[in-house]
Amino acid sequence: MTEPTTDLPTYTARKPPNAETSEQLRARIPGWGADLDPADRPAVPRERFDPGTSGAHWEFPERQPEKWPRERSIEHAILTPVFGTSCPPKGLSGAIRKFSYRRYSEGRAAHWLLLVAADRVDAWESHLRSFASPRPDNPITQTGVLAEFTRHGIASRRGRRRADVVHQGLDPLIVAGPWLVAAGAVVVGTRALLRRARG
Amino acid sequence: MRAMVYRGPYKVRVEEKDVPPIEHPNDAIVKVSLAAICGSDLHLYHGLMPDTRVGMTFGHEFVGTVHEVGSSVRNLKPGDRVMVPFNIYCGSCFFCARGLYSNCHNVNPNATAVGGIYGYSHTSGGYDGGQAEYVRVPFADVGPAPIPDWMAEEDAVLLTDALATGYFGAQLGDIVEGDVVVVFGAGPVGLYAAKSAWLMGAGRVIVIDHLEYRLAKAREFAHAETYNFVEYDDIVVHLKKITGHLGADVAIDAVGAEADGNLLQHVTAAKLKLQGGSPIALNWAIDGVRKGGTISVMGAYGPIFSAVKFGDAMNKGLTLRMNQAPVKRQWPRLFEHVRNGYLKPSDIVTHRVPLEHIAEAYHMFSAKLDGCIKPLIVPSAG
Questions:
Q1: Residues of B with CB below 8 A from A115's CB?
Q2: Minimal Cβ distance to B92: which of A35, A61, A115
């Protein structure tokens, strides 16, 4: 009877050895082991109570003026003393956003799904608004698609077996699809109206 | 001023905007000299992050010169050259007082789960970012720091997020001497994480991606052993085979919400927005790491649920560690590593693009054209 054996250390107490020793790695890779001691790693321990070192010279910051009712998470007790002022909510998308913040906490899927829906509405509202402005949206320049010609679009993909090429064809559909659907709806609706008008 | 502006999914343009005003006594206004596009900006660009508003200026990696300061600013003055961490933070709340700068409670009214980030949707506080000629920098006495005289601007801009995050990713892996570390993703954060793993004493560093040119950079820049997951029927099985069927000791997810490798996961998350992110890399990390191992998550995910294989993580007794990097905590040590040549951040920069051409830069970075790894944006270059 032979002793049970295996070449795989995994099934024993041993750890599979690395191809190179620490000494070999130190000689080959600049800086190898410089931060071997966790004490040299800058965010260790994770929490270190040291309130005097951040540069803050306040216990609680002065409060930034609130120039319009600022939407906030209902998980916050107060409006934070400092906040961003980019893009105040407006239009239908703004109404959806304000409702989402007012009604649902961050813990609710409805909160985030409403915000994503508002983003899509915002894009539509903004595109339509741009057509009444001196600078309407331009899908050619704004998608940067001309980079396909200046940045080797074909050569970057051909023969590369890239996993993302499989679904990149969906991108134009995502960008142009809603416009094509809307244009189709307008055509169908107009034809129906014309047909009705003709009796 | 000229600024990048979001116009809806996959669409950006440059517009004329007002120079941002001082809105708080500790604000500074910084004239941007160099910015970058981060892989996580692509989540915004693709419409994946909730409450990304048309009209917002993106950009959380930037350096520049102080243009104006508020009345309570003590540490900066106009003319100072500064680097600005991507975190906006007050320095005094419960979390900041404990060093969790990326989790500040005083800067983001829109969400308690997220800190403040420049140009990163209203979910991150509604601040305009630095892909512009000027940017408002709140808490100027806390976040920004002078760029050391010896440091190149291209290195400084990469310290504001990408390098600090990559190093932090390795650090959260709790690497001990001889550990086998696998990094999913050979983008900027993955490359820096792989390089940093050696500093912490890794015995073997493996990088997995599907873009050959990035894997080549991982071999050259990060001295890593690389595998293209497209070439294997099952990359988890391959990972087991090359680690004696044990699995790696530490796995780092440096991919995040738009991971490729599983069409259903990618399309439901990145295209249809039905998940907060496509957790392919995270699931590979869970299955590819050894029992009792550690996973460090640096990839960014949205706040909606994602189909993560949590049962395997529990059954394997894994430790999952993650956070946005508290950038300024990393800086003193990283400055040393840059100065003594252990880390050369700008080695991964592939493109320098004028702000006026930012739409092409986004498309190139998003579609991975022209060997793009890290594009920088130059506001002053016409």
A1: 50-51, 123
A2: A61
Whether A119 sits inside 8 A of B261 (CB atoms) is no
Residues of A in contact with B277 (CB under 8 A): none
**Contact across the interface for B244 and A18, Cβ inside 8 Å:** no
Q: Which domain holds residue A128?
A: 91-136
CATH architecture of B2-161+326-378: Alpha-Beta Complex (3.90)
Closest CB to A170: pick one of B211, B271, B304: B271
Confidence band, pLDDT 50/70/90 cuts, at residue A20: very high
In chain A, residues with a C-beta closer than 8 Å to the C-beta of B88 are 82
Which has the closest alpha carbon to B182: B213, B209, B216?
B209
pLDDT digits (tens, 9 = 90+) for B288-325: 999 999 999 999 999 999 999 999 999 999 999 999 99
Q: Note if the bond before B85 is cis, omega within 30 degrees.
A: no
CA distance B189 to B337: 16
List residues bridging with B209 in a β-sheet: B228
The pLDDT tens digits of the residues spanning B241-298 come to 999 999 999 999 999 998 998 888 888 888 888 888 899 999 999 999 999 999 999 9
Q: Is the pLDDT confidence value at A1 over 60? A: no
Cα distances (Å, whole numbers) of residue B228 to B96, B156, B164, B208, B234:
40, 31, 26, 6, 11
Q: What are phi and psi of B181, to 5 degrees?
A: -115, 125
Nearest to B299 by CA among B258, B351, B343: B258
Dihedral through CA B48, CA B53, CA B56, CA B58, nearest 10?
A: -10
Q: Among all residues of chain B, which has the CA nearest to that of A43?
A: B329
Helix (H, G, I), strand (E, B) or coil at B2: strand
- Answer yes or no: do B174 and A38 touch at CB < 8 A: yes
- ipTM exceeding 0.90, yes/no: yes
> Which of A31, A51, A151 lies nearest to residue B342, judging by beta carbons?
A31
Query: Is A153 a domain residue?
Result: no
Contacts of B335 (CB under 8 A, 6+ apart): B148, B151, B159
Residue type, B155: D
Asked whether residue A18 is assigned to any structural domain, the reply reads no
The residue of A35, A98, A154 whose CB has the most chain B CBs within 10 angstroms, and thus the best one to mutate to test that interface, is A35
Indicate the residue of B171, B230, B331 with minimum beta-carbon distance to A163: B230
CATH classification code of B167-322: 3.40.50.720
Average pLDDT over residues B88-100: 97
What does the pLDDT look like over A53-78, one tens digit per residue?
Answer: 899 999 999 999 999 999 999 999 99
Domain count, chain A: 1
Residues of chain B contacting A59 with CB distance shorter than 8 Å:
92
Domain boundaries, chain B: 2-161+326-378, 167-322
Q: Chain centroid to CA B40: how far?
A: 6
